[in-house]
Specification:
A hairpin with a 3-residue loop joins strand 1 and strand 2. 15% of the residues are buried. This protein has a single domain, classed as Jelly Rolls (Sandwich), CATH 2.60.120. The chain is globular and about 35 Å long. The protein is built from no helices and nine strands. It comes from Vreelandella alkaliphila. This is Cupin domain-containing protein.
């Protein structure tokens, strides 16, 4: 199954952080990737996503303004499985 690509817009990239805003229309995905830094996700909209990981798949509900963090080395594909678009800001800590 071919899914649309999530959009990414890098807003800051300096010696301390990389800040990227991600947009996910319904069914959009990031594609498999590995995070090079610890990071924090700041949801801008509520959403429902599927995380495909080497350990298995997990459904996650995003809540606007409710942040979470993950560690360097996290590998996954993020997919919007909801009926509405959502977006979040990813802050990677160098």
């Amino acid at each position: 199954m071919t899914r649309p690509q999530a959009s990414s817009h890098r807003q800051i990239d300096n010696d301390q952080v990389v800040v990227t805003r991600w947009g996910f229309p319904p069914e959009a995905e990031t594609g498999w990737h590995r995070h090079d830094y610890d990071y924090v996700i700041v949801p801008i909209h509520d959403g429902k996503m599927l995380l495909e990981t080497p350990e298995g798949n997990h459904e996650v509900m995003l809540q606007e303004g409710v942040c979470y963090n993950r560690v360097e080395g996290t590998e996954h594909n993020v997919i919007n499985i909801g009926e509405k678009a959502f977006s979040f800001v990813e802050v990677e800590l160098k």
